[in-house]
Write a structure and sequence with these properties.
Shape: globular
Strand order of the largest sheet: 1-3-2-6-7-8-9
Number of helices: 7
CATH class: Alpha Beta
CATH superfamily: Alpha/Beta hydrolase fold, catalytic domain
Largest sheet: 7 strands, mixed
Number of domains: 1
Structural class: alpha/beta
Strand content: 15-25%
CATH architecture: 3-Layer(aba) Sandwich
CATH topology: Rossmann fold
Order of helices and strands: EEHEEEHEHEHEHHEH
Number of strands: 9
Length: 216
Amino acid sequence: MEFYYLERKPEKINSETTILFMLHGYGSNEEDLFSFLPDLPKEMWIVSFRAPKEIPFGGYSWFDLNLNNLQNIMDEHEVSGVLRDLMQFITRFQRENNIQNRMDLIGFSQGGILSYALALSYPEYFHKISILSAFPEKKILNQISKNSEELKRLTFFISHGMEDGVIPLEWAREAAPLLEEHKIKFTFREYMSGHGVNQKNYLDLMSFLNNDLMLK
């Protein structure tokens, strides 16, 4: 599958250039996370995807949601297909542009669910993973890499609103034991917000993306 996307190329591109792939949430589009652009490193190549499914009331979706059954909120076969298509696109993009650096991911809500699965299934391709208002869906994490050394090279920044009425905070907190089990470095922060990114969350996120050090 081909994906529509927005991009900002740095002035200089070489094999060590970092690519940041952005995956927006349900009902949004490629312009949402792309709005972070002014505060991101100028030397970073930014690629912001548009999800493939247009939804009736506007915006796009990565996969259908079954809101009447929260215990079976998604079709894991549909999501697996989207993950496969995304990974094929991402690796081809990296190869065609001769980028040897590990790539970064940022995902909000639905996009965050996918970012968890991409990073944990293919850790050898990724470095920094930013998860905003999402949770690790175990039904699509059955392909977690067996390569513990590659998993330990990942670094996660995870944020969630304490008043999130869309994705319960308890779901987001399930990430901590999962990442600890695989000895993956992460920062998990909770904010006085709903299903979104408030100013403090945004500043912490930019600090994470602009620096090599973990947030304290």
